[in-house]
Amino acid sequence: GHPMTIPQAYTRLFRHPEGSEVLKHLKKITFERTLSPLASDAELRFLEGQRALVALILSFIKQGQQQGENI
Length: 71
What we know:
By secondary structure, this protein is an all-alpha fold. About 70% of the residues lie in helices and about 0% in strands. Helix 1 crosses helix 3 and helix 2 packs antiparallel against helix 3. The longest helix is centred in the C-terminal third of the chain and has 27 residues, at about 40-65. It is elongated and about 55 Å long.
């Protein structure tokens, strides 16, 4: 068969119960986290970077699902 793409690898990794739990945790500590109005610019930028990384993971999972699971 064809080699697995990166998005397919993400899909495969996170479709298992353990991967699903890790993804749930990553969402909780990034998307569901709020900072105080007194948070510094650096703290806000750091959290946004974390959120961007989790969003990228979710995007890869979606792409992998659309590509089909030749895995």
